[in-house]
């Protein structure tokens, strides 16, 4: 029986004269149903369903189903698709707070307090816990996201820099920025440090492959990228460069394995591209010479990220006071967006000193930490237009995205 609200042409017509009394639905037979004439083939129209020839039934069924499918398709098309929700965590390095931005409103909705000189914030896969490194003390802070309260402080080998959480949620990897350096490995089940891989010099940034099998950590002073096998939790080789290795970004394959590794080098206004599986540098991309005039601030290009849809990579430039967008995999320049400037009386404009980059979960908005402006810039990736400048804490540094359910 066709329910109410469906097109009139799909409702059953009245029973034919020879159908007899109306039967209970559970015992009704197809012979007691009469269909509108416009849905029946000539042969079926003459005999009704009870006398329909066997060869006519497929034709009749197709003619009945077609309007139903069209109607259902309209329902699906009319149903709105829910936007992917996310939060941007901003480590305010010259203070004691982590600002939390809602990607739907581009406003700060939470402030985590009590962490002196926070370096980076990363998350458990279920989003319940936030792990925050800091450089003022040798601890990793475990924060309950819902309340913003620190529930545990895990002792580390030295003061921390960047950190990463493996996608399977089993390990937290913390770069130690004192010399000699180390990579501390934290077990999330016991919230204890279970291993420390030693290095001759300090580590800066770290990325992990989507399959939780590999990590890469970079060193500015050592000029290397270290490959760590997470199945053995041991160093598995290093790539050496002619410049210090700064921020990193990973582009994963569909199966989660590493595909391409991106590195920023401390004297390059651009980025290097490495074939992850072969551990071989493919190319180096330099930003255009213009715009310019804002100074390098220690490293000309600092902060980059691959969009979640893996179609683009966005890369900061301090001399340009801008962020540049490139297509993947051909690295064609798509354009740039100028970042905020500070204008003081009688002085030339100062750049925002862009630091790190992250995206909304749907790749529609890119966020840049403006370390010199106490703000985060939100940019529409389709139009390449600034949509918001969001005030945060002192010297915003690393930014990261939590994808909400």
Query: How many individual β-strands?
Result: 28
The first-level CATH class name of the largest domain: Mainly Beta
Largest sheet: 4 strands, antiparallel
* CATH topology term of the largest domain: Methylamine Dehydrogenase, Chain H
| Biggest sheet, spatial arrangement of strands | 3-2-1-28
Question: Radius of gyration over alpha carbons?
Answer: 30 Å
Q: Mean of the pLDDT scores?
A: 85
CATH superfamily of the largest domain: YVTN repeat-like/Quinoprotein amine dehydrogenase
* Helicity range: under 10%
CATH architecture of the largest domain: 7 Propeller
Report the uncertain regions.
1-81
In DSSP terms (H or I, runs of 4 or more residues), the helix count works out at 2
Distance between the termini: 38 Å
In total, how many domains does the architecture comprise?
2
What proportion of the residues form beta strands (DSSP E)? 35-45%
Order of helices and strands: HHEEEEEEEEEEEEEEEEEEEEEEEEEEEE
Structural class: mainly beta
